[in-house]
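Exercise: predict the fold of this chain.
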Amino acid sequence: MDKLYIVIPAYNEEENVENVVREWYPIVEKIGNGSKLVVIDDGSKDHTYELMKKLAKDLPAFEPITKPNGGHGATVLYGYHYAIKAGADYVFQTDSDGQTLPKEFWDFWKKREQYAMVIGHRKGRQDGLSRVFVTKTLKYVCRICFHVKVTDANTPFRLMKADILKEQLKLVPENFNLSNVIISVIYAKKKLPVLYLPITFRPRQGGVNSINFKKIVKIGKKAYKDFIQINKCLK
């Protein structure tokens, strides 16, 4: 009788949001037990939220939410806290750009009782060399700052036990931009049972990526300072 909350952040995703909702909705519908698909509009400037509200009229287990813009990491954290407060037993997070495949979720679900987190490992990813570079850089920074090896720290395809996640979130600063990265690090640092499974990672299915190199550098500088502070709490 497990309750699952699927958390998906969205920003200016009017080209993708309907397909993403319709692809992921059957999972919460099949699991039942009060499971919900929650898409959080991060203050989009397009019609993302309006489309979400229309979809919700025919999809009772779909909850569209909107909030002021705070960035991807802050929106992910918002979703995690929302799911935990709603009584979720498990929280799954993915993104709204259509790069992940819902059919690969079920291998993760089968492993849910054995691990605190089951997370995707993006092998043969198709989203460009710059994204691969960022992932490898993050892996290196995590090793330097925290002395842990994290296979793919920022993967937007992760299933977590809600009660364990709740405790780890106490260590994550409010509105932290690289929230999934630091959560992966905390689990590794505490030696919590984590399983990495390979996943397909397609090109963005529509729209334009809102993250550019300038933003990545800015986020990275702030994250490095935060990483040092968080590491003191983990010692």
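Check your answer against the key: The first helix runs from residue 17 to 31.
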